[in-house]
Amino acid sequence: MGACMSSENAGEVEQKKKSRAIDAALEEDARRLRKECKILLLGSGESGKSTIVKQMKIIHQNGYTVEELALYRLTIYKNVLDCAKSLIAAMEQFDVIPDDEKITRYCEYLMDYQVDPDPQKTLEQEVAEAIAAVCHDMSYARVMEHQSEFYLMDSAPFFEEVTRIASPNYIPNEADVLRARTKTTGIYETRFTMGQLSIQ
After folding, report:
1. Nearest to residue 96, comparing CAs of 130, 161, 132, 147?
2. Which tens digits make up the pLDDT trace of 27-74?
3. Whole-structure pTM value
4. Which helix or strand (DSSP H or E) is residue 16 part of?
C-alpha cells in the first residue's frame, strides 16, 4: 500500500513540475508579447505603405547596405523613364507641341525606349540627355499647367537628377530609395526594434 502511495506522489510531483514549466513558459510569452507590437498597413496604391517600411528600416535598422541600395537601381531607371513617358503622353493629350524639332525627336526616342532588365547595365547617357532636354524645354512648363489632369508618378523629382542617375557608377542613395516606386503585391512582414519594443 505504501508503494502505491509513493508512486502516486511521484506522478503528482512530475505533473506539478510540468505544470510549473508550462506556467513559466506562458509568463515568458506574455512578457515578450507585452514588448511586441504588430502593425498592419493597409491603403490604396501609392499611399505610402512601402515608404513607411523603408523609413523604418533606415531609422531603426541602420539603413541599407551598398548592395541593397544597388538593387534599387533598375527600379529607379524604370521610374525615370515611366515619368518621362507619362509627361510626353500628357503633351500629346493636351496638344502641347515642343518649339524645337530636336525635343520632338527626343520625345519619340523616349517613347520607344525600354530599360534593359540587366541589373548590371546603366541607363544610357542619351536617355538622360533626352529627359533633361525635354524637362528644360518650354513645353514642359506648358504641360505642367495641366498637372491636375494627368497622372505623374511622385518619382518625378528624379528628372532633376537624371544626369547623376545615368552616371556609370550610380548607386542610389537613401532618398532615391524612398522615392523609388514598385508595385507591391502580397503580404510582407518586416521586423525591427524601437527601444525595447519589437515591432513587426
Report:
1. 147
2. 877 777 667 777 777 877 777 778 878 888 888 788 889 999 999 999
3. 0.74
4. helix 2-34
